[in-house]
Amino acid sequence: MVQGVSIMSYDRRFISVVAIFSVFIAVILVLIQNSIGIYYWDIFLYVNNAMKMAHLGPGDALYLPPFFPAVLALLFRLGFTGEITVFAAAAAFYVAGIIGMYLLLQLRFSEMESLAGAISFASFSLILSWAATGSLDVPAISLSIWAVYLALIARRRDSRFYYLAFPVAMAAFLTRYTSGLMLLPLAVIILTDPSLRLKLPDIGRGIGLGVLLYIPFGYFFTETSEHPYPSQNRFHPQSPVQPHP
């Protein structure tokens, strides 16, 4: 019992190190980005869509992935406005992604190896370049990491974690449509499970919760362009040709 408590305490110290490191880097990135401002055209479209969702203005490209704009819309409604809100929201996903990467690696590697992997992920130039800009790439990656981690936990420990895995996977898809390819690793995790039959009810409920998460966004698409699916909205005659989602 004492040894188990010691191991848990040791693991929490590593998680704390990852969290402190990621928050520190995120704050620096937000401050740097705030001094630069928004410089990528797509981000203006995401902000405009967020203002549309918050009933604060029109949206210009409502077929684009809606999840991150919905998060921004919630922050706008709470009174957090300005460019720094966009940067901070993106940076929060960056922090979540680093922590998720550590937990995912820890399923296979030691704490020290997982820490090294998480720090490596956090410091990749491609990740750092977009972490606090307000673009969709890092939030989608972070949500995808968490979806895979939760699915593995559901397979190995408790199948009720599928209740979280599928909604998070849906959120990743709604953050960047190409994240739908994440269905491939999720399918491998699920279909190769020796206890698949016993877990089918929980898998079904998890899928149902994922669909439930999509419903308000499908309603939003229907209200704005008469189609419940974003892929149809993209090619709607009234939809302008804009950046690739």
Measured between the Cα atoms of the first and last residue, the distance is: 50 Å
Helical fraction equals over 70%
Calculate the mean pLDDT score and round it. 87
**Rg for CA atoms:** 19 Å
How would you describe this structure to a colleague?
The chain has 245 residues and is mainly alpha-helical. It has one domain. Helices cover 73% and strands 0% of the residues. It is built from eleven helices and no strands. Helix 1 (2-36) runs parallel beside helix 5. The protein is flat, with a radius of gyration of 19 Å. The termini are far apart. It is a multi-pass membrane protein.
Topology:
Blueprint: H1 2-36, H2 41-53, H3 67-77, H4 83-106, H5 111-123, H6 125-130, H7 137-156, H8 162-175, H9 183-191, H10 196-225, H11 230-234
Helix pairs in contact: 1-4, 1-5, 2-3, 3-4, 4-5, 4-7, 7-8, 7-9, 8-10
Subcellular location: Cell membrane
Keywords: Cell membrane, Glycosyltransferase, Membrane, Transferase, Transmembrane, Transmembrane helix
Membrane topology: Multi-pass membrane protein
What characteristics describe this protein?
disordered N terminus, mainly alpha, LipidA_mod_glycosyltrf_83, flat, RgtA/B/C-like, 245 residues, transmembrane, 11 helices, Glycosyltransferase RgtA/B/C/D-like domain-containing protein, single chain
Write a brief structural summary.
The chain crosses the membrane at residues 14-41, 62-80, 86-105, 138-154, 161-191, 203-222. This protein is mostly helical and 245 residues long.
